[in-house]
Amino acid sequence: MTSLLLRNVRPMAGANCDILVKNGKIAGLGRFEPEPGMAVEDGGGAIAIPGLIDAHTHLDKTTWGMPWHVNNRAAVLRGRIDFEREHRTEIGIDPHRQSMRHAIGLAAHGASHIRSHVDIDTTHGLSMVEGVWKTREKLAGIIDIEIVAFPQSGVMVMPGTVELLDEALRQGCEVLGGIDPCGIDRDPKGQLDALFALAVKHGRPIDIHLHEVGDLGAFTMELMFERIRANGMQGKVAISHAFALGMNDYLRVGRLIEELAALDVAILTTGAPSATVPSIMRLKEAGIRVGGGCDGIRDTWGPWGQPDMLDRAKVIGMKNGLRSDNDLAHLLSVVSQGGADVMRIEGYGIAEGCNADFTLLTGETLAHAVVDVAPRPLVVKGGRVVARQGKAVVDMP
Amino acid sequence: MTSLLLRNVRPMAGANCDILVKNGKIAGLGRFEPEPGMAVEDGGGAIAIPGLIDAHTHLDKTTWGMPWHVNNRAAVLRGRIDFEREHRTEIGIDPHRQSMRHAIGLAAHGASHIRSHVDIDTTHGLSMVEGVWKTREKLAGIIDIEIVAFPQSGVMVMPGTVELLDEALRQGCEVLGGIDPCGIDRDPKGQLDALFALAVKHGRPIDIHLHEVGDLGAFTMELMFERIRANGMQGKVAISHAFALGMNDYLRVGRLIEELAALDVAILTTGAPSATVPSIMRLKEAGIRVGGGCDGIRDTWGPWGQPDMLDRAKVIGMKNGLRSDNDLAHLLSVVSQGGADVMRIEGYGIAEGCNADFTLLTGETLAHAVVDVAPRPLVVKGGRVVARQGKAVVDMP
């Protein structure tokens, strides 16, 4: 079923109209009568926006739907990484089952696209990626999943990882990941040279986790800028978290942002409340592409999060101190259009000719909708209804 | 109905037992048979904790349940204060109706007690307090409400306010409020001298809003410490927000915390994600009484928040970077026992002889329960069931 007449909705909180879908695309916005045999839905006057996008998450590592994972371990990043790698199998975090739960949860809450980092390391090889690939196949038509080959345990510090990343890209991972070249790898030149060489070899974009704060993170960004220029990778690099952009040095941050804009580097934020985070309004002023993501939800790292991009928008919005309706409307665009900008999704939007991927939201205005975090009345993917009232049409395993 | 047999619960996530209630008090924890005519409830194995406590909120100013309030005004504190005072009546923010909605929402989500700051100013006099008093009467037996006479618009900068605060305390407001003696009043000596004189005159505690950050807030705290010593008000002062304690100066903050402990000053936090906030774990180590609060929810100041202390615990917990089960259990105590410590609530707790004020929580452990933010299965106040599955027994007006 890829044809649909969705009546009585307000695209982007504008005037009430119908959305006509044919062959999985939006055939028109206006007033229409159904063709024979066409599915018809009443949107009840709800707001319609393009599908929400979780542009930074970790489908392979959630414990969602599993028994509560008790965690009283020390709060050390390297310890979290090693504990997870060493114990994920015995804990029972099956990457296919868990990525199914996570992705179905996101779809149920209105998401149409996911960019997921998936762990690749010398203990598990590509098995996490294989689990998520299986999920991607099973959820085809429900939600699109893009996979970042992610060296969670480090690159240079874990010999053999470069070869695994090479193989993952060869097998079809869309994006190359990386992580804290200084903080985790202790060898920023080594990791960044290796990553950029792989990206160039496979013609793939880079999306690197950068938790490094202050001057350290700024230094790593500068090393990235040099390599983007040297390799002609303008427009093909994203930095996730980018905590250094939250440092309290207005001018220094301004110079970093100028470079991000000049090199068309995208930023992905999760609004981490306890960290220093980039200002989404300052990035907007500079014309930077910015998406949002849930990050890990309820995993061995920490208990917070849920598979819902409006819940995440609330976290990002509160952390950014957003209050005005105009800013809240922008917040909603970060977790929708912003993700599409980062992932370069073709045909994204609510207009004739766009993909028929959209979600309904309750609320009077876009600001009201993003603050309310109410169940999504209806979620449509490729013209097919995939969730109603917060419940997906497919069951979680 | 103040007698009740609540079967099959786990007090504080411990061993399964029954809670026997007689005359509004807990008569015992163990296994019991109902007496003739006694109400019996099955807790379904849920966790039971004492009632949640919203120890810092603003019942008189929410727009909850009203049409969405569009706000594109400048983000200036003085502007927010003045806009609200000048326009709240025309917007239709009736303090009685709105405080009913807010308080019933809190009760529906498991709260047994509220400390609400209520605006007192030279435009509206005591009319906001009168509206909330009416709510307190109507909700007697559902939720307890303590009122702080709160000079939202300033004290010295709004002549006539001291006299109104004096009258409010005379009429029975339990606590004297204050706000940013430097930032709002531009006269820290003036405001603090006036407040401490009123508090001494009426024998009432003080709970002051202190948004002042860094060295400015630290200065104001020092002025407060001097007056607490001079007036013998040890144990009778609370500081709400206390953003200065979130400044990035470990030793300076340590000296302030030593003084807080020495003078038994309580801290109330809302975990404001975009601000610098006190570390609840550091305050715990110092033995400081710490409660949590929702602050304003969906008002003319900003759109965020909802009447649910577990939702607020999530905000406080994420902002404080809490992840371990032990820390999450402490987080739950901040929004329950911590509020009772600050408000000096007698008979609070789950033990024989305590008030029969408790809420059931779903989840395997205390940490799981505070992270899950699921509907509360059952809420009991004074032995009476006041909410089931997130729905109060009284309707919102």
UniProtKB/TrEMBL annotation, chains A, B:
Q: Which PROSITE patterns match?
A: TATD_1
The name of this protein is: Cytosine deaminase
NCBIfam families, per the entry: PRK05985.1 (NF004636)
One Pfam family, please name it.
Amidohydro_3
* CDD domains for this protein: Bact_CD
PANTHER family to which the protein is assigned, alphabetical:
BLL3847 PROTEIN, CYTOSINE DEAMINASE
Gene3D superfamilies, alphabetized: Metal-dependent hydrolases (3.20.20.140), Urease, subunit C, domain 1 (2.30.40.10)
Where the record annotates domain Amidohydrolase, the positions are: 40-387
Give the matching InterPro entries: Amidohydro_3, DNase_TatD-rel_CS, Metal-dep_hydrolase_composite, Metal_Hydrolase, Metallo-hydrolase_Enzymes
